[in-house]
Design goal:
By secondary structure, this protein is mostly helical. It contains four helices and no strands. Helix 3 runs antiparallel to helix 4.
C-alpha cells in the first residue's frame, strides 16, 4: 500500500472512530419506543446507521461491532418484533460504548495490496 493510500486509510479510520459515538446516540434516539415520538421508532434510520457501521467495521477489522450491527440490520430487514429490534439496538449501543472506552486500536494494513 502506498504512503498516500495508507494516509487516506488512516484518515478514514479516524473518521469512523469519531463517528461511532454519534452513531450510538442516533441508534438509541431512533430506536427508542419510549420517546413518545409520533409514529414510534424510526427503524429506517436505525437500519441505515447499522448498515453503515457494518461496512466500516468490516473494512477496519472490527468484527466485534460488525456482528451486532449486522444483527440489527437483519432484524429490521426481516420486520422483526419491535422489542427484539430495540434490544438488539441497545446491545449494539453498549458494544460501541465498550469499544470506544477501550479504544479501537489501529487496523492491520499489511494484508492490503501495494
Amino acid at each position: 500500500m502506498t504512503e498516500a493510500v495508507q494516509a487516506r486509510a488512516a484518515q478514514l479510520f479516524t473518521a469512523f472512530e469519531k463517528r461511532l459515538d454519534h452513531d450510538r446516540a442516533e441508534l438509541i434516539a431512533n430506536g427508542d419506543t419510549a420517546a413518545g415520538r409520533a409514529g414510534g421508532p424510526d427503524f429506517d434510520a436505525v437500519r441505515f446507521i447499522a448498515h453503515r457501521i457494518v461496512g466500516s467495521a468490516r473494512m477496519f477489522g472490527c468484527e466485534d461491532l460488525a456482528e451486532p450491527a449486522g444483527k440489527v440490520e437483519g432484524l429490521v430487514d426481516a420486520g422483526a418484533d419491535v422489542s427484539a429490534i430495540v434490544q438488539a439496538v441497545n446491545e449494539l449501543a453498549e458494544r460501541i460504548e465498550l469499544t470506544l472506552s477501550k479504544g479501537l486500536g489501529s487496523p492491520d494494513w499489511n494484508g492490503f495490496p501495494s
